[in-house]
Write a structure and sequence with these properties.
Length: about 425
């Protein structure tokens, strides 16, 4: 979901709106001013239109507060927040990274509905205050009551137990905590979401056939249904990719072509290719099957450069330093150590330090390790894959270094 207009930054988080929000805003203002508010408060002073505009603005503000709560909690926990977009179905917080544990997932999930329910309480108190003291006989209490009601409905609806709703994220976190398997928890929550979406659609259709206006509920049901399917398939894909080196799932690009080549000259070739400029420098990547998107009559004119993805936009993962003593790791070639790590290794060490390292390396047994070492099995696997190139040539010196690295990786997981 890309925003059509950018509103700016709130608490450092980019906020934008999609054009569909304006459409739903106009419809909502029309519905409130034309029917709901006159029905709720028939004999009061003030303009129903102005009250409806105020109510819709505050409602969108409430949705923004809900999303900001998600995003701020996520950012505090170290997750990357790419921005918030408000649209037809409410708001979307785009998080660049996943939570690292079930508690983080739970906190992010619960922050949104908690904010919405708190806002419902605030608007209810404001409605009572407006009615009794501040502005009796005006439309302000009506606006506040309406906002309290919609926030209450929104908060409760969001807590329904099915992904992609917040309640689904709560279910994910609890299952993750229980069985320790993030992907399995995500798949279960997405399945629950699918059942919930189907129930919403069926219920809305039944209401529509009975003559009730349940069009928007049906739309929400369809949204939940389709999003839960996407969530399930992406969780399944991630389960397949987890702990798998990138090279196992990558497709090697074996051909290249000058980027000024026309599609006709390149031919009906479905394979990806590296495109290069006049001086032979790679400029872009031609995706697989891209040439077939060009109509046959235009293939003589269209050049491959217009179909290629510029190299700076191609998703790439920088290799981490093979000598993981660098902490977070620094960019280096696959299986190689970065400059800082090499420097550390080559620096002369004190004899005492060397002796200590050797004893640590000998005491480490990857098969029958201590309970601490068993708990950090995942870290060890990662350490093992990083040192794979060294393991292929186990000369005594290299073997010692390899063991030493595995040992220090197991130690790192204790922090
Ligand atoms: Zn939410």
């Amino acid at each position: 979901m890309r925003p059509t207009f950018r509103l700016g930054r709130i608490a450092g988080i980019e906020v934008g709106i999609h054009w569909s929000l304006l459409v739903i805003g106009v419809l909502l203002v029309g519905s409130l001013a034309g029917g709901q508010f006159p029905g709720m408060a028939p004999h009061v002073h003030g303009s129903y239109l102005a009250a409806a505009v105020l109510a819709v603005f505050l409602f969108f503000g409430s949705i923004l507060a809900h999303e900001l709560a998600h995003s701020i909690v996520a950012r505090r926990q170290g997750q990357q927040v790419e921005g918030i977009t408000l649209w037809l179905m409410g708001g979307v917080s785009k998080l660049g990274t996943e939570p690292t544990n079930a508690n983080d997932e739970l906190r992010v999930a619960i922050a949104g509905p908690a904010t919405t329910l708190a806002l419902a309480a605030v608007f209810a108190v404001a409605a009572v205050a407006f009615d009794a003291v501040v502005a009796p006989g005006t439309l302000l209490p009506t606006v506040a009551w309406w906002l309290a009601l919609v926030n209450l409905i929104l908060g409760v609806f969001n807590l329904l137990p099915g992904a992609p709703l917040d309640g689904g994220r709560v279910v994910t976190a609890l299952l993750w905590k229980h069985n320790g398997d993030h992907r399995r928890a995500q798949i279960s929550a997405a399945r629950a979401g699918r059942a919930l979406g189907a129930l919403l659609v069926a219920g809305s259709l039944a209401l529509l056939l009975s003559g009730y206006d349940a069009f928007f509920t049906a739309l929400v049901g369809f949204f939940v249904l389709s999003s839960s399917r996407q969530e399930e398939s992406s969780a399944r894909l991630l389960r397949t990719l987890d702990n798998r080196p990138v090279r196992e799932v990558m497709r090697p690009v074996v051909q290249s072509a000058p980027d000024w080549t026309t599609v006709a000259a390149f031919g009906p070739n479905p394979e990806p290719a590296v495109l290069h400029g006049w001086d032979g420098t790679p400029t872009a990547l031609l995706p697989p099957n891209a040439v077939f998107a060009v109509p046959p009559e235009a293939r003589e004119q269209v050049q491959l450069r217009s179909l290629g993805v510029p190299l700076d936009q191609v998703p790439a993962r920088r290799s981490r330093c093979a000598g993981h003593r660098c902490g977070r790791g620094r960019a280096a070639g696959r299986g190689r150590e970065c400059r800082r790590q090499r420097g550390r290794r080559l620096r002369p060490r004190r004899a005492q330090d060397r002796g200590e390292r050797r004893s640590r390396a000998r005491s480490f047994n990857p098969v029958a390790g201590s309970s601490r070492a068993r708990r950090s099995a995942h870290r060890r696997r990662r350490a093992g894959s990083r040192t794979a190139t060294l393991a292929r040539r186990p000369t005594p010196g290299r073997l010692l270094r390899l063991r030493s690295r595995r040992s220090s990786a197991a130690g790192r997981s204790l922090h």
